[in-house]
Amino acid sequence: MKMMLIANSVASSYSARRRVVIRKALAADCDLTAVETEYRGHATELAAQAAADGFDVVVVLAGDGTLNEAACGLVGTQTALAPLPGGSTNVYAQALGVPLDPVDAASVLIQSLETESSTRIGVGKVNDRHFLFHCGVGFDAAVIRQVEKYGRLKRHAAHPVYVLAAFDTWFRGFDRNEPAFDIELPDGERIDGVYFAIIHKMAPYTYLGHRPINVDRTANLHTPLSLTAFTRCNVITLMGSAASAMASGRYLRNRKTIKRYTELEHFTIAGRRPFPRQVDGDDLGDTMRLEVQHIPDAITLITPYSPAPTPSGEAE
To answer: What is the mean pLDDT of residues 256-282?
Structure first.
């Protein structure tokens, strides 16, 4: 099996010791090529070249941003994608059930490859950028942009930084006076006056520590897109939604100013002014329009090996 290991050398869980252990483990049964990213977008180039060169699998030892880049290079190919947690939150790996320790995750990956544990999945796409689990537009994306300003602190204290960035953005970095965009759904329905929206391809939206934050629990690897749009932006809505996402989700489901849609294949976001957007936690800057699509049958994903349960009464 030909395998490429793409690593982000500045990822928070990355170290020389882990690199050596993981490379040795993966190279034991595979023809391994190990590379490191050198600049933004490099993982996309490396993954696309791996697919062109006939690699069977691209393993990404990094956070969600680098994993997203690699996925973009593999869309429409037969080369499989496998995440190894190497970032500060590792939303996608956690959602899949991958162990958070990258060495343990490498061991599970080897079992997954031996048992051919994989699935073909769809991805989301906004304009020319694909995403694996979510796209945030408006306030959500403005928070991500603020997080990026903390640099190295994000890698060592990610969750407190996100909370701090959310408050900082709320009070100083986001225009709450007027909505930023409207959403045009494929059946002609419009959602006018939206302050921020989250487009889901998978649940949860993120994690606070090990606690999942579920904005929409219906999204999974094999569903089209789900949309949660907020037509009001005040303290009650923000705090109520955050608390609901960590609990039953009842407030999010029942609030009239929060619009929810599932099973969407495409829709359009039209700006009233330039608005920020992010995919899988990666800030993409401002835009005036987004064409949002579900791309089915896009990537082969290596899923964690899960042994069949031992029948009751049998020895393990």
So the answer is: 96
On whether both 89 and 180 belong to a single domain, the answer is no
Q: Specify whether 269 is located in the same domain as 145.
A: yes
Mean pLDDT over 96-122 rounds to 95
Burial class (CB in 10 A: 0-12, 13-18, 19+), 139: buried
- The pLDDT score that the predictor gives to residue 316 is 39
Distance of alpha carbon 204 from the chain centroid: 9
Domain that holds residue 74: 2-116
Lowest mean pLDDT among 8-12, 52-56, 163-167: 8-12
pLDDT score for 313: 45
Residue of 271, 114, 62 lying closest to 179 (CA atoms): 271
Has residue 303 been placed in a domain? Answer: no
Compute φ and ψ for 218, nearest 5 degrees.
-80, -20
147 with 289, same domain: the answer is yes
Q: Is the pTM for the entire model greater than 0.85?
A: yes
Judgement on whether residues 110 and 168 belong to the same structural domain of the protein: no
